[in-house]
Fold each of these.
Amino acid sequence: MNIEQTLKERAKEAETTVVSYLPEVTGYPKTVLEAMEYSVEAGGKRIRPVLMREVYHMCGGTEDSLIGPFMAAIEMIHTYSLVHDDLPAMDNDEYRRGKWTTHKKYGEAMGILAGDALLNYAFETAIQAFEAASAENLAQTAEALRVLARKAGIYGMVGGQVVDVEKDGNFVDEDMLLYVYVNKTSALLESCFMIGGILAGCTADEVQTLEKSARKLGVAFQIQDDILDVIGDEQTLGKPVGSDERNEKTTYVSLHGLENAKAKVKQYTEQSIELLQAFDGEKEFLTGLMTWMIDRDK
């Protein structure tokens, strides 16, 4: 299987799903609605909704009308986090994927509001899954909504971002470093895996296995990001390398060295994929995509 080609196909399908849930750009709040649309359609590989649907199918899920709202919601949450990350008070970035960042195009106030709107609309969108839910899976849909909220909030992505911002990347020990990796990076991936399993009818133990798999994948992904900052090619990455060292940031590489970091990425990736062997469904593309995410050079 050609993973990159298949990813393009699955990402195009996910893109269609995500865009179909965006609100109509009209009325007095037209500007923020336009900024929301601009932010979501600015590009990206749609990895999170693709992963969510692949896990859903692996676990036996068949109703795209049930998983679709959650696929759109996770991408809206991911996009809002990027919009806010780019703001002057955070990373102060003017470009993302070769285009103006949302606040640069629409102004700082509208950038804040667009992020707020995307986060709120993500939950309006996810709630639409109840319309497709049968009487038997109403509880599963409610549990999926709970996971989505928790992993995006103070016990997930926001919590990790708070520590990262507060410490400016200078973590006091490895526990704090891993806390940021698990929450800032892994939490939304955990949400994708868990929601896919929950909506497909997995048991609590199976959902916990999916959470562990995604957590290891997320940490491996972030350590690989640290590695690329040391050995990556600037032209391929599209950003300067060596910034972590220049800014004296704590990373897995700075704590354990390059070779140990590479070994840890390999170990976590293998463990992540091994956990999925407990599931009988088709997983060739899913595990191939997980490996591709870690083996990337940008």
Amino acid sequence: ADLHVHSHYSRATSGECMLEEFHRWAQLKGVRLVGTGDFTHPAWFAEMKEKLEESAPGLYRLRAGAAAPMDARTPESCRGPVDFVISGEISSIYKRDGRTRKVHSCLLVPDLESAAKINARLERVGNIRSDGRPILGLDPRLLLEMALEINPAVILIPAHIWTPWFSMLGSQSGFDSVRECFGDLSEHIFAAETGLSSDPPMNWRVSSLDGLCLVSNSDLHSPGNMGRNANLFHCALDFHAIRDALRSKDPAKCGGTFDLFPEEGKYHLDGHRKCGVCLEPEESRAHNDLCPTCGKPLVLGVLHRVVALADRPRGARPATALPCQYIIPLPELLAEM
């Protein structure tokens, strides 16, 4: 399953980010379940209603008329069924405790009717039409409360939780724990997305995350990146079974993740792009977290932030940890050669 993707209505995405192309690339990559992405965008939501039909409890498939041309372009050895789960990312930019916070959240919704109600509520908060990933002045705790009022089965997954600028634990605008961010509703947060710049072993160093099911998704901006990070489920193929698997962290239902090596991620190390500086956390601390070239503050990357919050040594593995496997991106490897 690749649960976090973006449509062509999100900024800096390919025009090929269409449901039909997701259907085709899922088959090429061996992905069985794909997020729709961007359900909050009215034009994309209209496409979803037009092109999708229910296939299982809480899941959808591409209608036959839209799927057939894509299947004809897919090698026979790759062909197989593909299901969709309604998903979307919200960018919350708001003030809390005297600081500007920037936190991204990924919502998974069990039916189009609930998604429509969420959209109607969000449109009263801010502009959901300008971007597939809307920027709203809405505290993620209030977003979660609103979504649960509409449908208690909705899943909110804090997105790419370590990214410096836009995440729950980010060095520039985040918090130090799930409880700080979500307060009395923390019990409803049972999964968190590691992001491209971190992997499960990095997250295992932070004991406050032990109760969360770590998920990995592509966050793709072009269909060819589908499955570069993904999840393995052994449960029944329906929304509620997947929700139960994430909440339970039962390895018989939730088989862990497929990850890029985190060094491939954009925000893994510390740096200052303008000066072409890239440093390990230890090097940054030796320079008081200032750029050795210009003296301005460095952007502290994911590894630095993990080390700051870690209460376990590198290599520690909690008893509840799920498996993780690594993939090497073949196109990038060929490009390097």
